[in-house]
Design brief:
alpha+beta; two-stranded antiparallel ribbon; 2 helices; elongated
């Protein structure tokens, strides 16, 4: 029986930074230095799940930021340019998921 590599945790991390705020999104992943096929499969499954969760969290965060900016603009009497806003925040491509 061969010795196994001790399990360690790595993180999938994304950081959003703007002039007014920043936010870091982190999801733990099992170590990618696994030795068996089952452990590699588990790692890839965990990575896929974490990436999807990270995308969801970033989308929620950016939607909230857009709503806050729209509310501030409305209070100031400024009309929001939807096209510029999509360029600034990015537009979600719903057809790309799955």
């Amino acid at each position: 029986m061969s010795p196994t590599t001790p399990k360690s945790t790595t993180n999938l991390t994304a950081t959003y930074t703007s002039p007014s705020t920043s936010n870091t999104f982190t999801h733990p992943l099992p170590s990618s230095s696994t030795i068996s096929l089952a452990e590699k499969t588990e790692y890839l499954s965990s990575l896929r799940t974490s990436v999807t969760q990270l995308q969801d969290e970033v989308n929620v965060f950016l939607t909230e930021k857009m709503d806050e900016d729209k509310a501030l603009a409305a209070k100031a009497g400024v009309k929001v340019d939807e096209k510029k806003e999509e360029e600034y925040y990015g537009e979600e491509d719903v057809g790309d998921e799955g």
